[in-house]
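In the lab's daily routine, each protein ends up as an entry in a very long ledger. A line of letters takes care of the sequence, but it says nothing directly about the fold. The three-dimensional part falls to structure tokens, numbers that each stand for a local backbone shape. The outcome of that step, for a single protein, is printed below.
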Amino acid sequence: GLYNSFFNCVVTACEGSILKLWDLTTGKFIFEYSGLHCGGGISCMVFDKSGRRLITGSNNGEIKIWNFNNGQLLKHLDKGNCKEVTDLAFVNLNNNQYIVSVGWDKELHIFPDNSDSFQTRQTESFEWKRDSSRHSPLLDRKNTGHSDDILALAFGLPNFVATSSFDGEIIVWSMLSGHIFSRFAVTPDELDISCCNMAVSAILFLDSRSEIRNSSSLVSSGPSGKLYFWNIYTGDDPVTIFQATKNRCITCLDTDDRNMILIAGDSTGNISIWDIHEFALCRMDTTNARMLRTWRAHTDKLTKIDLIESQAFLITSSTDCNVRLWTLKSHCIGTFGVDNWNIKDLSTYIFPYGPTDICFDSLTISEADAKNTNSHNFGDETANMIYEDITHVDKKHQSKYPSTKFQGGKWLKNEKDSLSKDDGTDRTYQILSIDDLESLDINQSFDNIISQSSGLFLTQLK
């Protein structure tokens, strides 16, 4: 799912080459376009800067630009082969715009975006290739580029593009020269030498750190559920590594504009939110970043997380064929195509229950049983610290139950209340009434959620 702020709608796509539009405010279906890529499914998509054009990539190698308002095909970008496109980026660089693609051809393709051109088919920039081929060319990829399928790309200020591949290699390119600026490689866990999945399926630049040369400004996934923080200016070794999830792979990443939080999705449908506003900023951190919240959002691998900062919502997409809308408190608003809601009316949310498929999934049930037998599971102690740290927040923004233990956002059907008693016993689950929900202000702006002064932000995550 991809959010369009200009039209305030959500776009979903599938392997059937069908594009559907949904109203964010109500969850209602608006319109659909079919047959976008003949003989191929949509594998990735991105909006241009204005939000009026949509660029789609396909598993048959096609890249197309569409008028998002009426579905008209504007241009076909020809990269010279029919291998799958795995990721796309729309880049603004020195008042020029480019469309960048990567995929199973192990190559980085850069197309100048000339909206004034009436050509319906466009190839890569010959000028770019000619300039770059003089030194360390993007053309000569056998010697300088990736040797395995490229899975992800990210643009970072001021002029960098990072690409990651199936064999664990990460390359940072300079878009000005075509040179490789730096190269990294994730390494297997020394304690888990049997791990053979080295694929880096998610990378992300922290642009707020772009001018701090001794900071880690690039984040990537890695083997064994780890997250790697890299300094693109110094050395080959990561600044720090921390365990984001156990026995799973991180499949997608997102962050806010100021890089205060990092949102990670994994291969079993779990989402975790981390406080990174000072993590690995100018030093190596030997401990994990502080986890703010974690919950099960889907029953299968997460493929995309899109943070809507202006409204503090998350759009999540998964290979379980569901696209869902969440609050940052892990409250499920609904599933597109299944539920309808009024974004301003809490009584229309699925919360306090979770999506049915998650509630009755075997992995969810086994994790709930583990919590019942061990209250100090992964992340609980860190999350409980949040309740102490945010006591400075105004009373009207505080929960009615500030002593509640962190429960990872799982609100299972038919679970009875187990409220904290005077003897201090723990409450495993809590189901709030509609009156309780109405006391929570979910329409705060993202600026009110993040407190820059203390770094202890996220009223939504308390």
